[in-house]
Each structure stands twice: as C-alpha cells, then as structure tokens.
C-alpha cells in the first residue's frame, strides 16, 4: 500500500489553511501547518516532508525567503516547494522560481490547479532524485556554478574538466545526461559528442552542449552530430533545468515505449522458442519436463544466493532454454539406447554451441546466451565447449550445471534407470570444488535439505 504524502503548509491565514485542508482531503495526505515561514522552517529542520506548500506574504519570514532557506540547506534541498499565493503577476511568478520553487499556483485557481500541479511537481521530483548528470567544462567557476545549481535542483552531479576526463568517468559510470562545454582543451565538446555517439553502451545518453558561440551553423551541426540541445552562455539556472527536465522526461517516455516494445517482442520470440523446447522434449519422452525441472532447482538455488528480481528473470529464461541446442542433434544419437561412440559424443556436445547460434540474433540476451551455452563447463576447467575454469564460468552457467546434473541423473533415460536422489546428492557433494562451483553446491544443498529434493513446476518470473 502506498504511504500517505506528508505535506507541510505555511500560511498566516486560518481560513486559507482550512480551505487547503478541504481541497487536499481527497489525496489522503497527512498535513502539518505553520502560521509563518519561521515556524515552518523550525518544523522542517526536525521532520522530513514529501512536499512544502507556502504562501508568500507572511510575518517574520515570508514564503520567498522560506523557499530559499529550504533550497540552500543540503538536508532539505531536494524537498519540492510549491508557492501558493494571491500574487499572480508574471514578475511574482518569476520571483518564486528564482528562489528555487518547483511550482507556482495562484490562489484564485487553487481549487482546480493545485492537485494537478502537486502531481506534476512530485513526478518531476521523483524523476530527478536518482538522475546523474555529468558536467564537462574547463572553467572551474562554471563547474562550481553548475554543480551547486543542479545539486540544489535535486540531481546528482559528476564533474570533468575536459573530454578526456569525461571519457574516463564514462568507463566507470553511466550518467543520465551529459552537459558539456563546446570549446575545451585536449578533447572539446564536439569530439566528446562524437566519441559518446560512437560507443554502443553510451550512445543513448543525451548531451546538452554549452557555448558562448551563437553561430546557428554550429548549433545545427551539433544537433546533427547527436546533441539533444544547445544552450548559449550566459544562461539562467532555471532555463537550464527546464531544458534538462524536458530532455529527461522525453528520454524516459521513449525508454518506456522502447522497453514495452522490446518486452513484447521478446515474449513473442521466447514463446516461439519455448514451443521448440517442448517439441524437442517430445522427441524423447524420457526428457519431457527436464527444462522446467532444471529451471525450478536453479531458481531455488538463486534465491539462496540473493539474486535480484532481474537476475532471477534472466536465470528463468536461461534455464528453460539451456538444452535448446539439442534440436540440432540427430535422432539416432539423441535417442540411442547404447553407449555413444566418441564421434557421437562430440556431436551431442555441439548442442552447447547450437543454442548460442539460435539465441545470438536476440537483442539484450547476451548473458542468457552465455549461461545456456556454459552449463557443461566444469569448475576444474575440463568441461566444454570452451574449457572455462572457476569464476571464468558465468554464475548462471555454474548454477545450471548443478541443477542439470541432479535432474538428469535422477531421471530415467533410454539407456539407464534414474539414480536415487540421495546417491546423486552425494555425487554432487563429492564434486564440490572439482566439477561444480562450491557456493553453487552449497546453495543446492540448502535447497535439497529444505525440500527433500522435491521438484515442482517453476514459478513465472516476469521476463
């Protein structure tokens, strides 16, 4: 259940406080009131709030000074402030934004406009809260100005003195937006923009170019080269923040649309592949349900390894697809009731590379591909297809290796009867640190002891 908003209201009018309380009642917000800015300031120093609503004309400390104190204090600077005032001229509204207000609502329209403006301000505040901006400028004064202003606006700010320093930072972190000067030594803004747009892992980061040059040709050239916007120095912090918020809002919207598109596309593709897996297992009734069982065991192990939801989703996919490559194995080998010849064994080993060929065209599936193709690697380096050793084997592959062996050895096959679970448990324990990753074996043993090795159908884990 969503927690109720905590709102601090500062207004010296009792009737105005009553009207506000009535207006905000449908939101279910918890309201705290103060009769002037000084009283409100003492309250906010001791308690945190999701939002502050303040009048302008109040005794002792007016709303503009109160807002300025909030935005200048590191403890409260991220708290959004809406000014609600009977002062409604353009100059009054500009004065409100100049001291850092996040919104301005005239009292004459509060009954209609206040709640929508609160929603807008809180959405913008949430968007900024975890956003990282990289500021690149060779002027220390400008870096300081931008750092202070953008930090007060609620952003996290990283600083670089030129393009080279920026690229070093970009190797370590991925900001949400880059704000770069155009003319800099070593690597200027145009060169930085080109390098960012040339790198697959960085090209989606929007760039805003700053320059004292007002040449329209230069502006158009930078936009053509991939900059999201161009702002001419000197500029006001308020105008810059508006540009950044607009870009990030649009970027966020595009990301949501693209994410939904990719998820729908991936669900369709994976659904088709899952049908292939079922068709594959139908070739041999002895292996029917093997992928589901392996996935269940792997997911239970991953829970004990503190996987995140996203990691669980990736493992869920990899588990279901880990044997997909067997679709390329000949029936006379896959279904052979006798011992395989060396040539036949080499052929069946190829299923680990065939699965890579099938999954390779899918975007964003690299880790799943590697996991699905590495479940026959061994901790001691004697596995296949690449002979990886210890932590060079992806963790998802190490987990699947244990789960795959347990289900395969305890299940009936055309060439043998399944072994008792306790016997297989002992084999896995004996191979800890040899065939299998020690911490994966420990996670398996924890699951086995709690479940008695009973395998149930895996839960749906998003994806």
Describe the structure.
This protein is of the alpha/beta class. It folds into 3 domains: 6-126, Rossmann fold, CATH 3.40.50.2300; 130-253, Rossmann fold; 283-451, Orthogonal Bundle (Hypothetical protein af1432). It is built from 19 helices and 10 strands. The protein has helices at residues 14-24, 37-46, 63-72, 90-98, 110-129, 140-152, 163-170, 189-198, 216-224, 237-282, 290-304, 309-321, 331-334, 342-349, 351-359, 366-373, 395-410, 421-430, 438-451; strands at 6-10, 30-34, 51-54, 81-85, 103-106, 132-136, 156-160, 177-181, 207-211, 229-232. The strands form 2 sheets. The chain has a 5-stranded parallel β-sheet, with helices on both faces. α9 (216-224) links the parallel β9 (207-211) and β10 (229-232). α11 packs across α19 (438-451), α12 (309-321) packs across α16 and α15 (351-359) runs antiparallel to α16 (366-373). The longest helix is centred in the middle third of the chain and has 46 residues, at 237-282.
Write the topology of this structure.
Blueprint: E1 6-10, H1 14-24, E2 30-34, H2 37-46, E3 51-54, H3 63-72, E4 81-85, H4 90-98, E5 103-106, H5 110-129, E6 132-136, H6 140-152, E7 156-160, H7 163-170, E8 177-181, H8 189-198, E9 207-211, H9 216-224, E10 229-232, H10 237-282, H11 290-304, H12 309-321, H13 331-334, H14 342-349, H15 351-359, H16 366-373, H17 395-410, H18 421-430, H19 438-451
Parallel strand pairs: 1-2, 1-3, 3-4, 4-5, 6-7, 6-8, 8-9, 9-10
């Amino acid at each position: 259940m969503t927690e109720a908003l905590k709102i601090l209201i500062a207004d010296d009018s009792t009737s105005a406080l009553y009207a506000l309380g009535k207006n905000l009642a449908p939101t279910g917000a918890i309201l705290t009131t103060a009769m002037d800015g000084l009283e409100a300031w003492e309250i906010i120093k001791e308690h945190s709030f999701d939002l502050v609503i303040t009048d302008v004309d109040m005794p002792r400390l007016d709303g503009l000074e109160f807002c300025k104190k909030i935005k200048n204090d590191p403890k409260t600077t991220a708290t959004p402030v809406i000014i609600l005032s009977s002062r409604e001229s353009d100059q009054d509204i500009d004065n409100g934004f100049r001291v850092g207000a996040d919104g301005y609502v005239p009292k004459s329209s509060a009954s209609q406009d206040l709640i929508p403006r609160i929603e807008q301000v809180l959405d913008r505040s949430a968007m900024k809260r975890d956003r990282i901006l990289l500021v690149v400028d060779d002027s220390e004064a400008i870096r300081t100005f931008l750092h202070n202003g953008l930090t007060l606006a609620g952003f996290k700010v990283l600083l670089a003195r030129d393009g080279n320093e920026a690229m070093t930072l970009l190797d370590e972190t991925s900001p949400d937006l880059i704000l770069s000067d155009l003319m800099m030594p070593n690597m200027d803004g145009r060169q930085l923009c080109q390098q960012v747009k040339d790198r697959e892992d960085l090209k989606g980061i929007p760039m805003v170019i700053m320059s004292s040059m007002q040449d329209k040709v230069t502006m158009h050239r930078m936009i053509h080269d991939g900059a999201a916007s161009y702002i001419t120095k000197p500029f006001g912090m308020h105008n810059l923040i508006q540009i950044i918020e607009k870009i990030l809002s649009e970027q966020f919207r595009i990301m949501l649309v693209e994410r939904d598109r990719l998820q729908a596309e991936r669900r369709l593709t994976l659904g088709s592949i899952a049908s292939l897996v079922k068709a594959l297992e139908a070739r041999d009734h002895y292996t029917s349900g093997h992928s589901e069982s392996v996935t269940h065991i792997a997911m239970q192990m991953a829970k004990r390894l503190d996987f995140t939801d996203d990691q669980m989703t990736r493992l869920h996919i990899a588990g279901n697809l880990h044997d997909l490559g067997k679709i390329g194995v000949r029936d006379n080998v896959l279904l052979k009731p006798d011992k395989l010849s060396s040539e036949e064994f080499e052929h069946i080993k190829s299923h680990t590379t065939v699965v890579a060929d099938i999954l390779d065209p899918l975007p964003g599936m690299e880790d799943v591909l590697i996991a699905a193709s590495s479940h026959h690697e061994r901790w001691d380096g004697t596995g296949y297809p690449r002979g990886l050793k210890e932590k060079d084997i992806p963790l998802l592959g190490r987990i699947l290796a244990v789960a795959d062996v347990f289900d395969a050895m305890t299940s009936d096959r055309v060439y043998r009867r399944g072994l008792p679970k306790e016997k297989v448990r002992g084999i896995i324990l004996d191979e800890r640190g040899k065939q299998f990753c020690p911490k994966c074996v420990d996670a398996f043993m924890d699951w086995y002891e709690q479940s008695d090795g009973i395998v149930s159908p895996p839960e749906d884990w998003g994806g």
